[in-house]
């Protein structure tokens, strides 16, 4: 801005005119023609005091002082006000941009927070489902193993039961044949007799 003021400079033409008017008015005030004096005196009698020389000199001084004041005071003051205004405008603009940026960041943060909560809930639900599936799988495996153990135990019981019954039948047949042989005095242990006793036992055996 100072370069701009310097390039504009002082209106020297106006200063020159003002100086000429100031000097000319001063000279005219001290060398007033008689006709002008008579005119001024008539105006003064009418209550209008007027000194044309001083008036012209005052106007000239004003034309001299105004460009100087404008260059050294009014123009720097206006530039300072403009610079301050521009600074305030930039500050307000930056503040507005910062506010908009903060609003955008807050909105983005809230969106991320909502997404994070949704992801966390989804992860929790997924882990719960995995735990439920694992529990169901373990329970099914436990039931399967229990059924297998029960079936194996039942099979072993049936096998042992059949063995015991077979041993018992054999023992009964042996006792029967031995007792019969003693009673009759002859050997009754034959395949035919064993088959007859087995058939008899089958008939009288009480079902389990």
Largest sheet entry: none
Helix percent band: over 70%
The average pLDDT value, as a whole number, equals 77
The separation of the N and C termini measures 121 Å
Number of strands: 0
**Percent strand:** under 5%
Class computed from helices, strands and strand pairing: mainly alpha
H/I helix tally: 5
Poorly predicted residue ranges: 1-7
Over the alpha carbons, how many angstroms does the gyration radius reach? Answer: 67 Å
Morphology: rod-shaped
Sequence of secondary-structure elements: HHHHH
Description of the molecule:
This protein is mainly α. The chain has helices at 2-8, 12-30, 34-45, 52-184, 191-204. The two termini are 121 Å apart. Residues 1-7 have low confidence and may be disordered.
Précis, in short:
It contains 5 helices and no strands.
Defining traits:
208 residues; mainly alpha; disordered N terminus; 5 helices
């Amino acid at each position: 801005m100072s370069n701009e003021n310097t390039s504009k400079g002082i209106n020297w033409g106006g200063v020159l005119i003002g100086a000429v008017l100031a000097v000319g008015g001063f000279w005219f005030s001290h060398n007033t023609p008689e006709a002008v004096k008579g005119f001024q005196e008539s105006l003064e009698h009418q209550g209008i005091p007027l000194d044309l020389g001083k008036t012209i000199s005052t106007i000239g001084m004003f034309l001299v002082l105004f460009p100087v004041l404008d260059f050294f005071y009014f123009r720097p003051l206006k530039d300072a006000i403009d610079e301050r205004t521009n600074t305030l405008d930039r500050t307000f603009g930056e503040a507005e941009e910062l506010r908009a940026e903060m609003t955008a960041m807050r909105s983005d943060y809230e969106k991320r927070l909502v997404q994070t909560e949704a992801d966390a809930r989804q992860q929790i639900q997924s882990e719960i489902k995995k735990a439920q599936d694992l529990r169901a799988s373990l329970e099914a495996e436990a039931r399967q193993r229990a059924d297998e153990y029960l079936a194996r135990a039942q099979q072993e019981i049936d096998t042992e039961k059949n063995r015991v019954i077979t041993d018992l039948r054999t023992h009964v047949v042996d006792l029967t044949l031995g007792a019969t042989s003693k009673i009759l005095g002859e050997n009754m242990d034959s395949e035919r007799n064993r088959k007859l006793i087995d058939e008899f036992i089958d008939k009288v055996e009480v079902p389990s």
